[in-house]
Amino acid sequence: MLIHPQINPIAFSVGPLSVRWYGLMYLIAFVLFIVLGRLHARRRPESGWTPQAIDDLLFYGVLGVIIGGRLGEVLFFQPGYYFSNPAEIVAVWKGGMSFHGGFLGVLAAMWLYGRKHGRGFWEVTDFIAPMVPLGLAAGRIGNFINGELWGRPANPDLPWAMVFPLVDDLPRHPSQLYQAAGEGLLLFLILWFFAAKPRPRMAVSALFLLGYGCLRFIAEFFRTPDPGIFGTLSMGLSTAQWLCVPMVLTGAVLFGYSRKLKA
């Protein structure tokens, strides 16, 4: 049985400015997007994505992630707390970002980008999908460092069961690391190799929806459910699992439809 190392959430300070690990993980995610985007564009030169276009995509994506992620946390998971403490809504450096909200924010941002630059919505989302998972993994590592979003109680004999001292003395699943491995590394490998060859329009985007929705749905069985608009456990499922259902259904429909299209 392991004990959470209780890492100081502040990575370093420069005078009155404190830089948190959580923020650094987001910075790493954005850098990974740029690096992977350039590699992806080189192996698929027919796509016509330039370094400048990828930089512009990142700018739109950052806005979508931050605005959508925070609003998702406020509206989907903790509306009572944030409406009682409205000043906390803008305190993103303390953590508290919803993937599903960030996902919707990024979709809106990619639609705006495509409209401005004359690219189709699916053309944009198919290109960015393989670059997203490693950024998600970085975010989950940030959650682990913060000691937040801990797992459900685990069998004490589980070799990697972990006690989070700030929570209680129970051995728990380190679900943040499960998610970093599943929704992060595994999903990245699936999408990265799938997108290496020309695919029908919306196929890569659909596979992201299917992959993330399924992997997150499974991971929620090991993670302490967040409070949310559907309750802590409604019909045996957490709020995040309920939000994954339309992702999986939409992904399945889109993937089936894409198979009728030419690559």
From TrEMBL:
Record's bilayer topology term: Multi-pass membrane protein
Keyword Lipoprotein: yes
Function text: Catalyzes the transfer of the diacylglyceryl group from phosphatidylglycerol to the sulfhydryl group of the N-terminal cysteine of a prolipoprotein, the first step in the formation of mature lipoproteins.
Pfam family, one: LGT
Keywords on record: Cell membrane, Lipoprotein, Membrane, Transferase, Transmembrane, Transmembrane helix
Annotated Gene Ontology cellular component terms: plasma membrane
EC nos: 2.5.1.145
Superkingdom as given in the UniProt entry: Bacteria
One GO BP annotation of this record: lipoprotein biosynthetic process
Pathway: Protein modification; lipoprotein biosynthesis (diacylglyceryl transfer)
TM segment ranges: 19-36, 57-77, 97-114, 126-145, 177-195, 202-219, 239-257
A GO molecular function held by the record: phosphatidylglycerol-prolipoprotein diacylglyceryl transferase activity
Stated name of the protein: Phosphatidylglycerol--prolipoprotein diacylglyceryl transferase
Similarity field: Belongs to the Lgt family.
Family matches, as NCBIfam families: lgt (TIGR00544)
Provenance organism: Azoarcus indigens
Cellular localization per UniProt: Cell membrane
Encoding gene per record: lgt
Binding locations of a 1,2-diacyl-sn-glycero-3-phospho-(1'-sn-glycerol): 140
